[in-house]
Specification:
alpha+beta, four-stranded antiparallel beta sheet, 2 helices
Length: 70
């Protein structure tokens, strides 16, 4: 299982809903969440067969900032 961690600008519940639809397309994701309390709005994604770049590209294409935290 991979755990990927990203910095985002997902700020509102409506933004979360949009990203939920994006992340649904990845069958390997078993769990994900956004920490709205953190100033970096951290997105954590857990699953198999997923890549950070695929998640970043999908979320960025939807108009949000997403970059991997290292």
């Amino acid at each position: 299982m991979k755990i990927l961690v990203f910095q985002t600008n997902i700020r509102k519940p409506s933004d979360k809903k949009v990203n939920e639809e994006i992340l649904k397309q990845y069958k390997g994701i078993s769990k994900w969440n956004i920490d709205f309390e953190d100033h970096e709005k951290v997105l954590c994604v857990e699953g198999y067969g997923i890549t950070a770049q695929a998640i970043i590209t999908s979320i960025n294409d939807a108009g949000f900032l997403c970059k991997e935290k290292v």
